[in-house]
Amino acid sequence: MSDALAYLNDELAKLREQKLFRYPKVLTGQQEARAVYDGREVINLSSNNYLGLTTHPRMIAAAAQAAQALGAGSGAVRTIAGTMDMHVELERKIAAFKHTEAALVFQSGFTANAGTVAAVLGKEDVIVSDELNHASIIDGCRLSRADIKVFPHGDIDGLRKQLDETDAVRDAGHHVLVVTDGVFSMDGDIAKLPEIVRAAKEHGAITMVDDAHASGVLGRNGRGTVDHFDLHGQVDIQVGTLSKAIGVLGGYVAGTKTLIDYLIHRGRPILFSTSHPPAVTAACLEAFDILVEEPEIIDTLWENTRFFKKGLEDLGFSTGVSQTPITPVIVGEGALAMKLSDRLFEEGVFAQALAFPTVPRGKARVRTIVMATHTQEDLEFALKAFKKVGKELGII
Q1: Rg for the chain (alpha carbons), in Å?
Q2: Are residues 227 and 188 in the same domain?
């Protein structure tokens, strides 16, 4: 066997030395508020299943019926033979939900971001991006070959400064894109979208927001950041995910019919990757009906969020600038965050640690996300574990 990749052993050794090497914990059974990981039942605070829709009876029934009637897969990419009538129905439903002219479903939230940015910008264009934007946005920016300018996180003055430097680009007939997460995945804060949109408009820039962690969480019935700030019609490109609060798999782009028609012809994930299987598509369709018909689920998510966040803060933990169900417990060093996560798991709480390069050096944390399906008893149990382990490790 070739030893051409033997150098990777040195890199793995560094991770082990820094106590950052981990294998993913393995889930047995359903993705629920109480779940079994590595054979241990724990309070699950590491899932993106905000609303518990992955196990909603209506979702399961829709997926099963679609698989039975239509088969296990779609058989092709969208532009060859893989566009099913249910794909079109889902896109119509998403567009109506987001109050846009059209929508297009991608195989993942990652490909929706990366594929869209890479398709709509070229090497003569400029992208102005928040420094804490998701990796999928960063990769899309690189793939586009556009000039990338980064402004300090949430710094509107910094954004305006970067935009001031793009006037010559627009004067030459090229394009400028301002892109931001709606909810930032590591810190849980909400983008200052009204100010971002205002600054972009003043400079004739395209606006794009990634609502992966806002879809199903913010806005009326979970319509996202644009709805939360009542900015309908003012954001050019909205990206969302179907794999977090929606509870299934995939991503989507919503905007004008012109944008969507263009992406059908130039979005590489659409052109070169097989479309969603019937079970996934049917479950996504059902999820949007549930958001409209059962808004109390979102209310419960926020009640749980407020209870748990206050509990952590009252214990003396630092939760940073979080404004959403994403609540980081920031401890500083990566090894300490890993130790906190490991000890919590031993105490019956699953909360994953995140360290550099996922977050900046010195900002390692355990990231928690509550779900609508957590009971108060679940969250009280978790808070007791945090208190015990936090004191043991000298964090509080």
Answers
A1: 22
A2: yes
Active-site choice (46, 47, 74, 185): 185
Q: Which of 242, 261, 293 is the last residue of a domain?
A: 293
Are residues 256 and 278 both part of a single domain? Answer: yes
Respond yes or no: is residue 244 known to be catalytic: yes
- Do residues 49 and 101 share a domain? no
**Cα–Cα distance, 321 to 328 (Å, whole number):** 9
Length of the chain (residues): 396
Tracing tokens 């793009």 back to the chain, one arrives at: 166
Model confidence over 274-303: pLDDT tens digits?
Answer: 999 999 999 999 999 999 999 999 999 999
Active site residue 213: yes
Number of structural domains found in the chain:
2
| Token pair 């009971």: residue | 375
Give domain status of residue 9, yes or no: no
Domain span at 223: 57-293
Contact 215, 203 (CB under 8 A): no
Identified catalytic residue from 87, 175, 203, 213? 213
DSSP class per residue in 297-329: HHHHHHHHHHHHHHHHHHHT---TT--SSEEEE
Q: pTM for the full model? A: 0.94
**pLDDT computed for residue 2 by the predictor:** 67
The tokens describing 225, both together, are 């950041």
Same-domain status, 267 and 379: no
Q: Which of 269, 293, 317 is the last residue of a domain?
A: 293
pLDDT by residue (tens digit) across 177-236?
Answer: 999 999 999 999 999 999 999 999 999 999 999 999 999 999 999 999 999 999 999 999
Q: Is residue 36 part of a domain?
A: yes
Q: Are 211 and 182 in contact (CB under 8 A)?
A: yes
Query: E strands within 319-387?
Result: 326-332, 349-350, 353-354, 364-369
Q: Considering only CA atoms, which of 359, 350, 356 is closest in space to residue 381?
A: 350
- The residue with tokens 């043991």 is 392
8 Å CB contact between 339 and 366: no
Range list of β-strands (E), 250-310? 251-255
